[in-house]
Specification:
It contains 4 helices and 6 strands; from the N terminus they run H-H-E-E-E-E-H-E-E-H. The protein has about 160 residues and is of the alpha+beta class. The chain has 2 domains: about 55 residues; about 80 residues, Roll (PH-domain like). The strands form 2 sheets. Strands 1-2-3 form a 3-stranded antiparallel sheet. Helix 1 packs antiparallel against helix 2.
């Protein structure tokens, strides 16, 4: 029987910086074209300037606050019976994947993640809800976790369908 309790583990603390950089890049990709378009206007109404300023400030605040909230509220855990994840700070999402349902275990390291020494582990199951992703793990922990999940899954009876 599965023990239904909050997962114990958090992402690596360096994930906050990684998520913040991602948020700042996304903010720049949205804000810079809007600011350039505004600068090219011959008639710049005050309401549009205020709206653009509020949009940029909101995006910047989200890029700086969001990663800290994500770190605080995202949890994961692996037991011999299942993989548990809990995420989201406004809308909470709990996922539990029994070992017998796991089909593949993958690790991924993007360029920014490599700069921070981080990786993601993706656990694909037969669920229509999609894969379970554990983000922002130290790269060595991610490799160990993928190896452990593979060993447990191979030793678990079931056909993962």
């Amino acid at each position: 029987m599965l023990d239904l309790r909050p997962p114990r583990n958090q992402a690596d603390p360096r994930a906050i910086a990684w998520w913040t950089v991602q948020g700042l890049v996304a903010t720049a990709l949205l804000a810079i074209p809007a600011l350039v378009a505004f600068a090219l206007l011959t008639d710049r109404p005050g309401w549009l300037a205020a709206l653009l300023g509020a949009l940029c400030a909101g995006l910047l605040a989200l890029a700086l606050v969001g990663p800290r909230a994500q770190y605080r509220f995202s949890r994961w855990e692996v037991t011999d019976q299942a993989v548990y994840t809990c995420s989201g700070w406004l809308f909470r999402s709990w996922r539990i994947a029994p070992m017998s349902r796991i089909q593949t275990v993958d690790t991924a390291r993007g360029p920014l993640q490599r700069l921070f020494g981080l990786s993601d582990v993706t656990v694909t199951t037969a669920s229509s809800a999609g894969a379970i992703k554990i983000e922002g793990l130290h790269h060595a922990l991610a490799d160990d976790l993928a190896e452990r999940l593979t060993a447990i899954t191979q030793a678990t009876p079931g056909d993962a369908t």
